[in-house]
Structure formats: C-alpha cells, structure tokens
C-alpha cells in the first residue's frame, strides 16, 4: 500500500474508547525499544510519527492510527519493563488481553523481536499466548542490519526454536535503515486485512 496519510485517532484503555469505524486492524506488539516505532515509520513512509510516550510510569494506551482510511494500525504499549509495579503490569495485561481477545476487527498481530538476542521470557509468553488464541501472527525480527548476512539463517532458526514456532508460522527479518522486509510485511498485512 502506498501510504500518504496516517493519523492518530484514538488512545484507548477500554473497549468503549476504540474507534467505531470498522476498518480492519493490525496490532503491533513487542518489548519496549525493540524498534516498533521505527518499523511503523518505515511502513507508513515517515521519518517519525506522533508517538505517545512509551516510557515507564507514563500512561500506557492502545494507540489507533488511521492508515489511508482503510485500516488501523494499533500500537500496543511495549512489554518487558523491569521497573513497572505488579499492579501496573496487571493493568497492562488486562488491557491488551481484552483488546486482543475481544476485538472483532483485529485481523493480525505483528510481534517484534530483536534479531540480535534470543527471545526473552516475555517474547515467548506473548508468542505462545497469541498462538493459544489462534491470532494470525507475523514475527518480525528487527535490527537485522546489525547482524552479518551469513548469520541470518541462524538468527531465524534460533528465533523459531526459542519462541516455539511451527514451520507455517511466518517470520521475517527487518531493518529500518535499509527498509529491508518492508514489502513482505506489507504483503502480509494486506492479506490479513483485505483477504
Ligand atoms: P520502540 O521503543 O520499540 O518504538 O523502538 P524504537 O523504534 O524507538 O527503536 C529503539 C532504538 O533502536 C532506536 O535507537 C532506534 O534507532 C533503534 N532501531 C530501531 N530499529 C532499528 C533497525 O532496524 N536497525 C538499527 N540498527 N537500529 C534500529
């Protein structure tokens, strides 16, 4: 999709705040700092797009971005902060569980993992949880430019094994500075969103 227009339409913590337009939705999940805003910026051809803070202690909301009046990108706040309280963790868990399990318009989830590291416990838990709920999931391993090409296969197999992926679960390598993987990610999004 050639994207010119993207607008943050809603920051929501509860279902009554979700947009009612009915466009298909693609959610983005991942550890904070994994490269989520960099990936979305590449997808929508922007240097930087309005991001509400993903800093610990700040309000954690689901952010709905209207993409060309055709779909929503839903930015799910990053998991894996060491510092958040148990209560905050639970509130976050509730909010995303409600969204991911109850949202009819949700067509797919892009889970970002850092290509340089083994998946974290949070990554594994998230992937397994998405699989349990049968949510179509694309795993995107970010920052591939930091890894020599000769090791890409190894990265993919480590990630697949670590997350417990099956051979038919899709995984793509991505690099924001090189825009590597952009078209393949868009293909997946359009297939999920529009069939
Ligand atoms: P977010 O917290 O998940 O939204 O992560 P950001 O998109 O803000 O990225 C976190 C840091 O990783 C920033 O310093 C980015 O410049 C860097 N980064 C993100 N994606 C890539 C990538 O594909 N390659 C490289 N080399 N750095 C990246």
UniProtKB/TrEMBL annotation:
Q: Which UniProt keywords apply?
A: Cell cycle, Cell division, GTP-binding, Magnesium, Metal-binding, Nucleotide-binding, Septation
Mind listing the GO molecular function terms for this protein?
GTP binding; metal ion binding
| GO cellular component annotations of the record | cytosol
Q: Where is the EngB-type G domain?
A: 22-195
Q: Which Gene3D superfamilies match?
A: P-loop containing nucleotide triphosphate hydrolases
Q: Which cofactor does it need?
A: Mg(2+)
Which Pfam families does the UniProt entry name for this protein? MMR_HSR1
A GO term (biological process) for this protein? division septum assembly
Q: Which family does it belong to?
A: Belongs to the TRAFAC class TrmE-Era-EngA-EngB-Septin-like GTPase superfamily. EngB GTPase family.
Q: What does this gene product do? A: Necessary for normal cell division and for the maintenance of normal septation.
**What is this protein's name?**
Probable GTP-binding protein EngB
Q: Which organism is it from?
A: Levilactobacillus bambusae
> Lineage, please?
Bacteria, Bacillati, Bacillota, Bacilli, Lactobacillales
